[in-house]
Amino acid sequence: MSLNPCSEGMLKAFRLVRDAGGWWTAAEVGKQLLRDMDAARAAQTAGRWLGALARHGYVARRPGAPTCTYGVTSACLPPDGESLVPSTRPPVLVEADEALA
């Protein structure tokens, strides 16, 4: 049994932000991972994932940014079974029913 508090959607968001690098808004993550969902709902779902990831220290919020943006920095902790080292594999999309779980 894993003690990892991350849902599959959260892990996919972590991997996307880590692998692509830079700073991401919830709308950008939602657009990338939740393509079959309307934009507002995708941004809301991705915002929940990113907020939870930030609370656990898996992603960082960009200080002083005018909008809430997130990235993986060297100060972040990787979720169980993950690494801070970027992967070269393309991101895996999240199915709508999986995103709402």
Quick rundown:
The protein has 101 residues and is mainly alpha-helical.
Strand content: under 5%
Structural class, from secondary structure content?
mainly alpha
**Ends distance:** 19 Å
Number of strands: 2
Q: What is the CATH T-level topology? A: Arc Repressor Mutant, subunit A
- The CATH class name reads Mainly Alpha
* Helical content class: 40-55%
Strand order in the sheet with the most strands? 1-2
Radius of gyration equals 13 Å
What is the typical, i.e. mean, pLDDT?
88
Number of domains: 1
State the fourth-level CATH superfamily: Winged helix-like DNA-binding domain superfamily/Winged helix DNA-binding domain
The helix/strand series, from N terminus to C terminus, equals: HHHEEH
Largest sheet entry: 2 strands, antiparallel
User: Can you tell me the overall shape?
Assistant: globular
Number of helices: 4
The CATH architecture classification is Orthogonal Bundle
